[in-house]
Amino acid sequence: QVQLQESGPGLVKPSQTLSLTCTVSDGSITTAYYYWTWIRQSPGKGLEWIGFITYDGSTDYSPSLKSRISISRDTSRNQFSLQLSSVTPEDTAVYYCVRDRNLNAVTEYDIWGQGTQVTVSE
After folding, report:
1. Mean pLDDT in residue range 17-30
2. Does residue 96 contact residue 109 with C-beta atoms inside 8 Å?
C-alpha cells in the first residue's frame, strides 16, 4: 500500500520561500495515471487545492497561487516537492501531499500524507 510523507521546515519567515517534499513509499510517482497533489488547510481558507504534478511530469496550479508556486519531482528519489515563494502569514496552514487516483479523469484523493504544519511568522 502506498504511503505519503511530507517533510520540511515548520516555520518560515515572511517573504521567504516555503519548501516541502513528499516522499512516496510502496508506489512509483511515474505510475499512470496518478496525479501527485498538494493541498492545504487553514481556519481562514478551509481546504484549498494548491496544484499537482502528474505521473508524466505535467503541472497545474491554483490560479490564485500560480505566480508563487513551483511543483517539481525527483523520480530517482520517488519524491515530489512544493515551493511557495513570497509567503505571508496567510500561507500558514497544514500542508498535505495527496495522491489523486484520476480514474477516468475524475478527481479522487485516495491516499493522504499525515500533513505538516507550516507557520509563517517572524
Report:
1. 98
2. no
**What does the H/E/C string look like for 88-112?**
CHHHCEEEEEEEECCECCECCEEEE
pLDDT the model gives residue 99 = 98
101 burial level (CB within 10 Å; 0-12, 13-18, 19+):
middle
Q: What percent of the chain has pLDDT over 90?
A: 96
Query: CA angle at residue 103 from 100 to 105, to 5 degrees?
Result: 90
Assess whether pLDDT exceeds 80 at residue 97.
yes
Nearest CA to 18 out of 99, 122, 106, 119 is that of: 119
SS3 (DSSP) at 13? coil
| 119 neighbors 92 (Cβ within 8 angstroms) | yes
Name the grid cell of 45.
481558507
Q: Which three cell numbers stand for residue 49?
A: 487545492
